[in-house]
Amino acid sequence: MSTPKHPGLINSIALRLATLVFPPLGLLLLWRGQQTIGKKLLATFGILLFCIPYLALVIFLLIRFTGLQIEWRGGYIPSLTWQPTAPDYDKLEQSRAQQAKLTQGSTTAISHSAYWTGFRGPNRDGHYQEMPILTDWPDTGLRELWRKPCGGGYASFAIAERLAFTIEQRREKEVVVAYEVETGREVWTHGWNAHFSESMGGDGPRATPTYDEGKIFALGAEGELRCLEATTGKLVWSNNILSENSARTPTYGVSASPLVVDEKLIVLAGGEHGGAVVCYQKRDGQRIWTLPEVTPGYAAPVLVTLEGERQLLVCMETETVGLGLDDGAVRWRFPWRVLNNQLPIAQPVRLATNRFLLSGGYFTGCAAFEVNQGGDSFTTRELWRSKAMKNKFTSSVFRDGHVYGLDEDILVCLDAATGERKWKDGRYGYGQVVLASGHLVILCGNGDLALVKATPERHQERARLSAIRGKTWNHPAIGGGRLLLRNGAEMAGFDLRQ
Question: Which helix (H) or strand (E) holds 178?
């Protein structure tokens, strides 16, 4: 190999080109070529500091002139993308117009019963037990039932009467929609003017509708609560839970799914300046009781039974509490808060009759506690605390003495009795987890679908496929063996039956 005759000239040209293309790099090469080792290190550090505002300027110019956008996908550093996850309203409207011309699809293949009637299933614990699911997924993937564009937001589906109910952002309206489970055909819509937007969380409604006895209870991000006929979408009654209770819109919008218990409808109405937890009559929307002047989190209320007494488990800003179902009176308190001035998002996980797990992101971790009765009152006791499980937007599931969930974006198995980590493996983004047939069905943060065996022995991912496209924080729903997925742009149905 011949030696270049003019290495100095070549180096000079390379330096000039580097300076022209990326000035900080050229300066770095120039400084390092003229200094001693100690000064080279100091110069390198200084130039790297100079690179930060330069890179920020480059990114700003790309955003300003090329359409590059910032999208928060759950981590602490935003992603840069030319294709953010957002609804294509023109495409959606064209799809629905074409659909309206077709004859009604057959829905006889799916059971008429109501099982997955709200957020995270019948008990809000992420367990699917209606029937066994397919756990030997073919290499070609699950059988796809349908795929369609949808509106924005983070709600999941409630499934009943052969229909799947969700709430979407469609232009300047929040719209409750009923789809045929088997075909994805839009059956009815009911909307109102509202458009919640937040720079980090994104646009659209958050709370999954709840089905009960032929009615749909839907809640928008700015507090609009509506009771609708499930078969037609006809309005029965409506309230705005924020204005009615002198509460302000939470930072990330009203997010907690309504809870129906007998003839009562429980919602989280906001915060310190008005009713935080509100109980309505489900038949007409009349208020029964309120718990005022506290700040609730974003996790949905849960019904629990302790020593024969039915209570509401609600995560507040600084504590998790048990409330009397009849009057909203506080029956017990457990001190718990998410760090960095955040509010609880993850659902509490029931570990035993009187034991629960709480978890939070933002470097918080998790804690297990128990509730005990002494006479007419209840007391709480912390069992253990750990940094090994930090649920941010997701919620964990419990099976056979172990908790499975996402520590930020990595799957973890914990011993529920001690908090000991059994294993940590596999990246799934800021997705959501369902437990079915001894397996974890994980809808990943990028729209992938994964199947992981729920065992404390080791991480065993059995299958993974591309399901929907884009940032996906919405919880999956399963009814009649059909798996329904959506995010803020696309939705799809898959067959999970054996």
Answer: strand 173-180
- Write down the architecture of domain 89-495 according to CATH: 7 Propeller (2.130)
Which of 14-28, 105-119, 309-323 has the lowest average pLDDT? 14-28
Give the span between the Cα atoms of 409 and 361, in whole angstroms: 10
3-state secondary structure 352-385: ECCEEEEEECCCCEEEEEEEEEECCEEEEEEEEE
Strands 432-436 and 421-427: unpaired
Return the exposure string of 271-290: e unless at least 16 CB atoms fall within 10 Å of the residue's CB, then b: beebbbbbbbebeebeeebb
Sheet containing 461-466: give its strands across: 127-128, 432-436, 439-443, 448-453, 461-466
Residue 356: CA atoms inside 13 Å, Cβ hemisphere, count? Answer: 27
Tokens, residue 139: 């290499």
pLDDT digits (tens, 9 = 90+) for 420-439: 999 999 999 999 999 999 99
Instruction: Point out which residues pair with 212 in neighbouring strands.
Output: 215
Break the chain into its structural domains and give their ranges: 9-69, 89-495
- The β-bridge partners of 177 are 166, 189
Lookup: tokens for 339: 């760090």
Question: DSSP states of 184-195 as a string?
Answer: --EEEEEEEE--
Judged by DSSP in three states, 337 sits in coil
> For residues 302 and 290, what is the distance between their CA atoms, to the nearest angstrom?
16
CB atoms within 10 A of CB 42: 13
Compute the distance between CA of residue 162 and CA of residue 221 in angstroms, rounded to an integer: 26
pLDDT at 208 over 60: yes
- Scored b (16 or more CB within 10 A) or e, 402-440 reads bbbbbbbbebbbbbbeebeebeeebebbbbbbbbbbebb
- Name the pTM for this structure: 0.90
Residue 431: phi and psi, rounded to 5, are: -100, -155
Please write the tens of the pLDDT for every residue from 265-320.
999 997 666 689 999 999 999 999 999 888 999 999 999 999 999 999 999 999 99
Q: Are 209 and 215 in contact (CB under 8 A)?
A: no
- Distance between CA atoms of residues 329 and 13, nearest Å: 78
